Amino acid sequence: MSAVTDARVTTPADARKAGNWLLTATAIVLSVWVLLPIYLLIVNALSSPGEVTAFPKRFLPSFDLGSLSFFINFAGVARALWNSVLVATLTMILAIGFGAPAGYALSRFDFPGKGTFRFLVLMTRAFPLPLLALPLAVMFIRTGLDDTAIGLALVHTTLALPFAVLITFSLFSGIPVELEEAAWTLGCTRWQAFRKVILPLALPGIAASAVFAFTISWNEVFAAAVLTIENRTLTAFLLQSLGESPLYLKFAGGAALVVPALIFIFAVRKYLFAMWGIANR
Amino acid sequence: MHGKALPYLLLMPATLFLCIFFLYPFALVAFEAVTRDGAFTLDNFRTMAGSWKFPVTVRNTLLLAAIVVPIQLVMALLMASVVSRLETGRSAALYVFAIPLGISDLAAGLIWLAIFDQSGFLNTLLSSLGIVERPVMFLGYQSKLTIFIAVALAEIWRATAIMMVILVAGMGLIPKEYYEAAEVFGASPWQRFVRVTLPLLRPSLQTAIILRVILAFEVFAVVAALGGTNLPVLMGETYNWQFTLQDRNVAAASALLILAISIGFTLFFLRVLRVPKEARI
Q1: Which of A16, A17, A36, A127 to mutate to test the interface with B (most CBs of B within 10 A)?
Q2: Cβ–Cβ of B99/A265 closer than 8 Å?
């Protein structure tokens, strides 16, 4: 472990100083490990197609938009982008629409069957969920949901719903029930109390988990590739054209996937613990 | 509102959804795996296991998990220790370390393709340092080892963040008094880490490892982006059975195998890292 100070250093002050220095150095090294590969992808995306395939490479971008404009104008890309946004938006709505009421119920009531429901939700975490797209492909053909945005969004919702339930559960649990009870004594109905007292308090957290659901769908590859043919999402499009597409198309596409993800993670950074830390307990 | 029915009403949408899109397809995939044209058979498994690619596919997937997960565990512990000790720049470090959390596995594959490609950044660096004379083909069909290393690096880069966030949340739950007591008794930082942090972190370690191992068996798009068909893995072969070879039943058998391995490992880690009720914080 890096954060360990050297035992031979004698005075506590020296030890602390050495420890702090080592800590900062480790933090910087780890940050470079995370950021450098992303930077290199961005360099490629901001270079002309000729520069991307040339050798040796420059480590600074030339800010040539050739690769990006080739990518945007490539047949099918604009549509794939639109499909990705559409599917992710639907996933977000479904996951919060189904998940938030369940999270609220888990946080406010004690009732028989509560344990079973929690178990069902937690169980989804032990399964490679994208695989379930395989049997669903047949069911979707029968019901006319094949190759539609809503069909794929339903599968992505199975990925996002457990998160939505557990995150909203921890959000609502963090809001004292006394606030709600006070509203009731002042004459609010249960719904009014929820809407006027609880919802405003929980809204930023709910928004964050909505963004999170969006990101899960935006990034998903396997189910998207299995379930869409004409209406491919960006990930499915990129996966299926890996074999034949030129390098600069791949890198521009990769950047198109990464940049929104960076913004999403930045937007929900305050809630990352609630998302993963608490949701996994 | 009638108090008794309300929680069930709130849980209903999520429960129905999980039954239709989680339990039902799960039953369906199991059914498809053991039948062919409506009759019970184990032929699908025989066909799957009889393919010449099968042994190397299983070996690649398990080997990748066996190498990647322990390295990630160490790195995640390192990152989590750094984040929880930093006094300035704590939230910035946390955000940077968490960035890969939002990045698609396909995008991660493309990011590392920018580095390992023949005209990529690694070759540029090596040739400018005079280590190689001409660019090396790292990802060709003859260089299985370098493909494996590239995939392993991309996986380590991409999915350490998930473990890190869970462990940071877990470390936050350990009472400060434990560390103070250990310090009073003269425990070095390393001893504090081994004797206090690690044992008390066990529930979080368990969750982090289980989640990560399951994801490791799902590795797909990273491999597709970096190795194509040169490094067959289970999820990729499942995809192949479904699309290239158009055999739904064998694909289902393959999916069931991944599910079985995932469940097997989940149970294993639940048992090995079991936390007795009275030892929880």
Answers
A1: A127
A2: yes
Ranges of H-type helices in A220-246? 222-227, 234-240
Task: Find all residues with CB under 8 Å of B63, minimum gap 6, and list them.
Answer: B148
* pTM for this prediction: 0.87
B25-279 CATH choice from 3.40.50.2300, 1.10.3720.10, 2.40.128.270, 2.60.420.10: 1.10.3720.10
**Chain B residues close to A19, C-beta within 8 Å:** 189
- What pLDDT does residue A219 have? 92
Residues of chain B positioned with their CB less than 8 A from the CB of A219: 102-107
DSSP state of A176: -
Which residues make beta-bridge pairs with B39? B36
Its domain, for residue A57, covers: 12-67
- Splitting chain A (281 residues) into consecutive groups of 10 residues, what average pLDDT does each group show? 48 74 91 94 88 79 83 87 95 95 90 84 79 86 88 93 87 87 89 89 88 91 89 91 85 92 85 59 45
Residue type, B214: I
Which ipTM score applies to this complex?
A: 0.87
Kind and range of the H or E element at B68?
A: helix B54-85
Shortest distance between the Cα of A194 and any Cα of chain B, in A, equals 13
Backbone phi, psi, residue A2, to 5°: -80, -30
